[in-house]
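Example record

One chain of 306 residues, shown exactly as stored in the release files.
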Amino acid sequence: MIGPDDVRAAARVLAGVAHRTPVVTSRTLGDVVLKPENLQRAGAFKFRGAYNKIASLEPGAPVLAYSSGNHAQAVALSAQLLRSQATILMPTDAPASKRAATEGYGAEVVTYDRYTENREEIAAALAAERNAELVRPYDDPLIMAGAGTAALELLEDAGTVETLVVPVGGGGLIAGSATIAKELGVARVVGVEPEAGDDWKQSFAAGRIVEIDVPRTIADGLQTHAPGELTWEVASRLVDEIVTVTDAQMVEAMRFAFERLKLVIEPSGAVALAAVRAGLVSGRRIGVIVSGGNVDAARFVSLLGD
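Predicted structure tokens for this chain:
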């Protein structure tokens, strides 16, 4: 499906366009290195895959995507940079700040109800109507390869990593990350998802894709109901374990990142750090991908409380 060379090819496409986000450490965390993709363009790792995909299309080709926010912003910004028109299908309950940022990059936003409507069906109809290329949030080899460049950079900059811990929603980030990590000698790749939305954990236990109801969790970027077909094909072979964290553990990780690392991260971006902080992942030399930081000030304060 994808291989290490695809991730390296994506890195060449992204060179000079995507930010090479730094490696961050903390004495409190011990032998842990973090890749803060909240500092990436559009505030999340999603820019890597979106730009890699849109750059492969005919120049100026219109694009369409569906997303609760991070992929939406990434596609909108990538389309703007590559002089394409983007239409984004977003759920009605998407964070207002993410919708505003998406529109700010020049995209047209169309809304739907994530709990009663099928976004894939709506997107397919819209793409046909507008003659637009559908830029999927994760189930695409170019999206996976682009996402994997975050892990590639982490491993290049941090040196030896024995365990890589990665947020998992649709699976694009973990599929791309595991592809390059295993080739570079990482012993274990662990995926982390919300406890309320454990479709990956159930799928690993069953040995096949398991669908669940759309989960209700503060991690809006991880509210998937099943692994992607292509991402499952890759991750089910290369990922060693899936663990889950609670909303409360995500909030604790967000607080730690803000107070000790001076990083603002969103709930979805905090799950891998939350798993390490909760002792769900242990071992020597752990690499953690912090996948995004798109949370507005009001929601951040509301989640962290007093």
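Notes: The chain is about 45% helix and 15% strand.
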